[in-house]
């Protein structure tokens, strides 16, 4: 009986583990299609935030956000908080902003878990029809 309960607990834990936006995600380069960084999405005071925790290109390990404005100007990209203040709204998280460290621009955004290991991000200016969608895959 103990084995059955243990197996059930493990199965429930595994099935629920992939049902959250929180965790590590691979971000890909639009031009090459290759993973260029790992981003960690975490919760703080009931809102979602994310920061870059790994840069794959060894030549970009010490890169700084030269195009960023304000407090992020010339900050190291590694460790940079790129997603701020998203709040849960049914199946999506919205109301926050996303920073693109490649060009320093900040966009309104929403994110949605479309599969247990696939995250949809939509960054936009004004309203969501004028924007860009990217997909991140869960990192192990």
From TrEMBL:
It holds the Pfam family DUF2147. InterPro entries: DUF2147. Residues 23-138 form the DUF2147 domain. It comes from the Bacteria. PANTHER family: BLL5882 PROTEIN, BLR1215 PROTEIN. This is DUF2147 domain-containing protein.
């Amino acid at each position: 009986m103990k084995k059955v309960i243990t197996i059930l607990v493990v199965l429930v834990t595994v099935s629920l583990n992939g049902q959250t936006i929180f965790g590590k995600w691979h971000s890909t380069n639009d031009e090459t299609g290759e993973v260029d960084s790992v981003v960690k999405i975490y919760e703080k005071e009931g809102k979602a935030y994310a920061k870059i925790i790994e840069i794959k290109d060894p030549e970009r390990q010490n890169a700084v956000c030269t195009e960023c404005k304000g407090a992020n100007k010339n900050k190291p990209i590694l460790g940079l908080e790129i997603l701020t203040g998203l709040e849960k709204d049914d199946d999506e998280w919205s109301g926050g902003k996303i920073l693109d460290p490649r060009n320093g621009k900040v966009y309104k955004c929403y994110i949605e878990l479309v599969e247990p290991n696939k995250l949809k991000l939509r960054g936009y200016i004004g309203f969501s029809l004028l924007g860009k969608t990217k997909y991140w895959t869960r990192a192990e």
